[in-house]
Amino acid sequence: MNIHDIKKEFPIFDDKIQNNDLVYLDSANSSQKPRIVVDRIYDFYTKEFSNVGRSVHYLAVAATNLYEQTRVSVQKYINAKDKDEIVFTKGATEAINLVANTFGQKYLSEGDEVLLTELEHHSNYVPWHFLRKAKNIKIEFAEINDDGEVTLEAIEKKITNKTKIISVSHLSNVTGAILPIKEIVQLAHSKNIPVLIDGCQGAPHLKLDMQEIDCDFYAISGHKMYGPTGIGVLYAKKKWLEDLPPYQGGGGMINEVKKEGITYGELPNKYEAGTMATAQVIAFNESIKFMEKIGIQNIEKHEKELLDYGLEKLRKNNSVNIIGNPKEKGGVISFTIEGVHPHDIATILDEDGVAIRAGHHCCQILHDKLNLPATARASFGVYNTKDDIDKLDEAINKCKKIFNL
Amino acid sequence: MDLKDLYQEIILDHGKNPRNLGKFDNYNKDAKGNNPLCGDNVHVYLRLNENKKVEDIAFEGHGCAISMASASIMTDMVRGKEEKEVKEIVTDFLGMIKEKDSLETNILKDDEKTKLMSLSGVKQYPMRVKCATLSWHTLTSALDNSDQIVKTEE
Questions:
Q1: Which residue, A8, B102, B104, B139, is most buried by CB atoms nearer than 10 A?
Q2: Inter-chain contact A344–B64, Cβ cutoff 8 Å?
């Protein structure tokens, strides 16, 4: 697949949006969907629909097989040891909540510490905050440095003999910093501390190898990987999924239900209660195939080129201030313009069809640290081109003109 | 949609140089407001005298040009007005931003109405309406909660 033809695979770019060609620079928020993913949902509902894992009729068996095929695709894609280490969730948020809830129930008690970082998304803070309230645990934050990175040393500094789990981002959705997760896992494991990686921004952009990273948990968001909304993945080492209690109770996750007691199902059913987002899981397989066809190395290379081009261009633009300067950085450029609030930037850019995000990007702790109430953010996907960045730059100039800068 | 309707000169002026920004000592009513989604916040302080007249009013906070301009124009406009007049102006303004084409209150002079109408551009930008209305809702909270700061979050 030619990287230059990829935009054509995405129907959203076929038509004008508000009379403009769409310049979509909000993929860190959610990516657009290739035609094969959209078509797969339609085809499943129109030709193949049935609930999975319950009935024995033809459609039910076929749907179950399709559903399980995605599990195997994900397993291979992230190089997990076993397909039972793949649990489907409604998103990365649910994946992190699942771990915080079940690990918290079993292993955390008053005074124990959970170690996060200052650049975590709210979805990797709030679930742990629940435990702070319920169990009186403590939450520690490894600090960011002036470049907007979290170093291994910053993590090490906050580890104490009370640290029970470390939960960190793979790639910051604000500064773009790529954390040294392999080293963090090695360090944590040398102290017998398990590690959860919030892979929302990592999975769509970086090569993943669970056996090499060796983390205990890795949370993935489907809709940021060119997949449907309502689907996420929790990768967890089998020993944890066997050891931890179930998360939600309901149909499909049980073994035997009696008045006197209940036994739970085998993996991975134990963590998939109720009817799951079947069509989305099945369509997510197409997202994985789409990314495999391009090749993650090619995606990484393409996005790195865009990033370098974008950084060079925006650095030359007076009054644009780029947030963070990490050495290892993904395709995210957060910025401010002196004298123009990010919301005004976003509205003015939108007028020219340039879609960015403005606000705190669900990272208030980080913005407090940076002493900024909000930032503007352009983030890249596989369909972006250098032309998109030129249009961003032009729209920023228009913004400056309106505000007489 | 036209950006010129949204970013009129008066908005840019008040957004850049907000009037009544800061805090004064002898306020007797105040309230905080925030937009959790975008992180904007405002803190309105005012002093009602024994005749229920707004003797002084000011605000602290940060936000976009629209929200700063709106708070700036609002504080200018309600200073010297009686509490019930303030409430009528607030209701009229919020009604205009929401649905009505013009302002109906007789309390404001024509040039004041023109000033307020400069904020009507947000009607074309549904996501920005809350920027224009935040300080006005906070003013209402301040008037209704005399004894303590209104906390929108725990």
A1: B139
A2: yes
Backbone torsions φ then ψ of B58, nearest 5 degrees: -155, 170
Helix, strand, coil in percent for chain B, rounding step 5: 50, 20, 30
Q: What is the CATH number of the domain that holds A308?
A: 3.90.1150.10
Number of domains in chain A: 2
- C-alpha dihedral sign at A49, A52, A54, A58: positive
Query: Which residues span the domain enclosing A208?
Result: 38-292
Residue of B nearest to A402 (CA): B7
pTM, entire model: 0.93
Work out the burial of residue B110: count CB atoms within 10 Å of its CB; fewer than 13 is exposed, 13-18 middle, 19 or more buried. Answer: exposed
* Active site amino acids of A: 362
CB contact under 8 A, B41 and A360: no
Q: Is residue A32 part of a domain?
A: no
pLDDT per position as a tens digit, B68-106: 999 999 999 999 999 999 999 999 999 999 989 999 999
CATH number, residue A190: 3.40.640.10
Give all domains of chain B, ordered by start, each with its CATH number. 3-144 (3.90.1010.10)
Question: What is the predicted ipTM?
Answer: 0.86
Task: State whether A257 and A318 are in the same domain.
Answer: no
Which residue do the tokens 């124990």 mark?
A112
Q: What six digits make up the tokens of A281?
A: 């899981």
**CA–CA dist B28, B57 (Å, integer):** 10
CA proximity to A360, closest of B34, B150, B42: B34
